[in-house]
Amino acid sequence: MNNQTNLKPSNVYLITAVASLGGLLFGYDTAVISGAVGGLRSYFVSPLSENINIATEAIVEFKGLITICTLVIFALFSSFIFKFFKKVTAIGIMVVSILLIGSLLYSNFLSDSNELSENLGNSILGFMVSSALVGCIIGAAVGDRIANSIGRRNGLIVAALLFIISALGSAYPEKLPFLMAGNLTTFIIYRIIGGIGVGLASMLAPLYIAEMAPANMRGKLVSCNQLAIVSGMLVVYFVNYFIIKGQADDWINNIGWRYMFLSECIPAILFFFFLLIVPKTPRFQVLKGNEDAAIAVLTKYNGSSRASEILEDIKKSFKTKKAPWLSYGWAIIIIGLLLSVFQQFVGINVVLYYAPEIFKGMGMETDASMMQTIIVGAINLLFTVVAMFTVDKFGRKILMIIGSIFMAISMLGLGTVLYADSSGIVALLLMLLYIAAFAISWGPVTWVLLSEIFPNKIKGVMAVAVAVQWLANLVVSWTFPMMNNNSHLNELFNHGFAYWIYGIMAVLSAFFIWKFVPETKGKTLEEMESIWEAEGTLESKIN
């Protein structure tokens, strides 16, 4: 009992609730786009086909923006290359990559005429929807530096401000132009700004909770952040539904989509002001030499008897030596990266971003399609909670394999139903089955595996895995309209093609988990290290 002197659980729950608003905004910002896709197409893309001069100007700006985004993403990933290879080798890889990426970008995009084609229009819409993910990559990449320079709490304050700026600019790009850019480019830039906020929140919110929570409550409290993310998605689905309920399509396409983005200001402003009343983490205080402030916070949240002991543990942790990222070989690196890639390539964010459009494509009215999206969000939330209570009971591998199997069945089935032009209740049930399968497996369990497979000495590799995850998300979300709205593919497959691709990826993900990913349930970090040091790594399995 002495260890808990002065400890008030309400204090811990309060800071967890405040930090979890970062997770809620993460989910809110990434899902708000789902209700606005039709409005964005009508307001930004469709008018380009009516005015050649406006279209040419917008396409030139779009090409320039894509070039800049490519260079930024390449620069961020280049910093990782130097962590894996010697300097000369890393420079060689970068030069080859620049030449390859540059030639592909020029020959397949920049050299094309500045005339609006069906594929280019779909590409513009896809990037508008997925552009926030460029910001997510940036935010995740700089999150560690921000956490160690201005702190976890102050980093979240920056994220809150970025959410507010993004919400206002995305809602009214013509009133808040970015420099001299046109409306389309301005909208994309504001979405990228919001994405930086998401990237920061995705890293700093769970980090803040983990560093503030007592050890005996840490697991439960950190899991609240994942719950907050899916809750944010569900909340915004409700918000979008009530914004457009009973409204005419013209109002939705001209005004309604603006209110969807603007609504994010409410939780973002609350997040900003609540952050001003919570303390900086003890670990950051020690990092900056403020031990008195650290001990005060530790006493408040852990009790006076435990405070000094935890302070000493924090000081010792700074002395832990980091090992080279390839200390355990390539197997662990490849497995970590493929976990991130498969989590996105099974198509989950296509459903989360485009759900209303998918349901409207099945013949549903606007109100009905938004209501079905709410059901999708509710299923996502429910089965995420189920996963939280079953992952330690059944293990990681079995949940991941079962999830992959049912996702494969759902996506292959949905593609077949659409191909046969017999959508309806069957398509809806397959979509809900898919969401349930993902939410109980690849959604939360991927993060559990990523946090467990990397030994403490090379925890920095997780930053690469997270960045790759955002990049894979960008690729999938950007390319979906190009596949789903392509006239030639629709003549052949009637909107079923994209879903078959995601179904095949789900099959491959099941094989990957079964063959290459070790079970981490009940294993200590030391035991995980021995797995990677022993024989039976990815290379030996392949050979």
From TrEMBL:
The chain crosses the membrane at residues 12-44, 64-82, 89-109, 124-143, 155-173, 188-209, 221-244, 256-278, 325-354, 374-391, 398-419, 425-449, 461-480, 500-517. It is found in: Cell membrane. InterPro entries: MFS_dom, MFS_sugar_transport-like, MFS_Sugar_Transporter, MFS_trans_sf, Sugar/inositol_transpt, Sugar_transporter_CS. Signal peptide: none annotated. The lineage of its organism: Bacteria, Pseudomonadati, Bacteroidota, Flavobacteriia, Flavobacteriales. PROSITE patterns: MFS, SUGAR_TRANSPORT_1, SUGAR_TRANSPORT_2. GO terms for molecular function: transmembrane transporter activity. This is MFS transporter, sugar porter family. NCBIfam families: PRK10077.1, SP. Its main location: membrane.
